[in-house]
Amino acid sequence: MQREEPERFPWSDVYCLAAQEGALRTAAYRSLLTVSPLSSWTRRERIDLLHAHFGQTAVWSAADHRELPPLVLSYYGRDVTLGTRRDLDLTAWRYLHYRPRIFALARKVIVLSRHMADALAAQGCPREKLVVIRLGCDLQRFSPPPTRTPTRFDVLMVGRMIEKKGFADGLAAFARFRERLPAETRTTVSLSLVGSGPLEQELRRTAEHLGPSIRFLPPRSDVAALMREHHVLLAPSKTARDGDAEGTPTVICEGSACGLPIVATLHAGIPEQVEHGRTGLLSAEGEVSALADNLWALHADPGLRSAMGEAGREKMETEYHPAIEADHLAALYREVLAGN
Q1: In a domain, 74, yes or no
Q2: Same domain for 107 and 184?
Q3: pTM of the entire structure?
Q4: What is the per-residue pLDDT for 35?
Q5: Could you read off the pLDDT of 201-235 as tens digits, one per residue?
Q6: What is the full DSSP assignment across 3-71?
Q7: Mean pLDDT calculated for residue range 5-10
Q8: DSSP state for residue 73 in the 8-state scheme
Q9: Distance between the two ends of the chain, CA-based, in angstroms?
Q10: Closest CA to 71 of 63, 80, 62
Q11: Distance CA 242, CA 299 (A)
């Protein structure tokens, strides 16, 4: 893998195991019965440290009972909820079987939020191994515009159209908000949805009854440009019926970086991304009326929108800067290697 900023991170070669081992190793990983020859590979390549991204990929380490380099493991959200969901495939079952050993093997377990750390601790991960390192946001690509059109109120939702994203709640909340407006001003508000997924057609059918102020945009749209054109990011995430849940939605960081106030829910790690009353407004998951009220509050107060957008950008610069998070990760690598 090509490494950025080698002068700051003077490590030896970095390998992406999936790229090195190819489709055959991927197929072996997905098999319930296969035992991974990972230790042979790490000895051959003189690997000093393994970093597994997503909990279930660490099965390679747990299934290999020979000596391995120190393991660092990162969780991202969906992998944290595997034990509570009802849609488990063979890969998930194998992960759950090995999870106690994975927790024992890992020197450090990286999570994106304190909420995620609490969830993994409840599953048996030792607290002293858990470290919060946030995903940095591209602050150059996602940046505020010089100004926003003051006479409009354009709301944006971005993400895969699946239950946990709460887009159905977002549509309903926007419809309630719009109904409260005088008829002559309803043309000055809109809701744009960017993405695709299994619920897309259902959402489109719902939107047909809500008028022309709702539009669906292709999933490959320039999200950064759209964020600069809109006034609010709506992120009504919720726990799905199968137990699937968010980690810390990347789109929230991107929206804040673009100077958007966030209307979102008290779900998973979102309250750590969005400071209620400072960078956005939060409400309980599934509370459509509360989401509508929060949209109304921001529509009624352009000054509040501006202040929250500025505070959100500041939060991203101080807490989610890629360079800061990269330094945290480098320090963790050094700590693990020093203790090996």
Answers
A1: yes
A2: no
A3: 0.88
A4: 46
A5: 999 999 998 878 999 999 999 999 999 999 999 99
A6: PS-TTT---S----HHHHHHHHHHHHHHSSSPPP-HHHHHHHTT---EEEESGGGGHHHHH--S----E
A7: 58
A8: E
A9: 24
A10: 62
A11: 34
Q: What CATH number corresponds to the domain at position 306?
A: 3.40.50.2000
* 308 close to 280: Cβ distance less than 8 angstroms: yes
Mean pLDDT score, 154-158 = 98
- The pLDDT assigned to 148 comes to 94
Residue pLDDT, tens place only, 269-294 = 999 999 999 999 999 999 999 999 99
What sign does the CA torsion over 277, 266, 227, 166 have?
Answer: negative
Report whether 2 contacts 17 (CB < 8 A): no
The answer to whether residues 168 and 310 belong to one domain is yes
SS3 state at 127: helix
Residue 4 lies in a domain: no
Task: State the CB neighbour count (10 A cutoff) for residue 105.
Answer: 18
Which pair of structure tokens corresponds to residue 153? Answer: 């109120």
CB 268 within 8 A of CB 116: yes
| Of residues 91, 135, 90, the one with CA closest to residue 110 | 135
Question: CA distances (Å), 17 to each of 14, 59, 168, 277, in order?
Answer: 9, 13, 39, 44
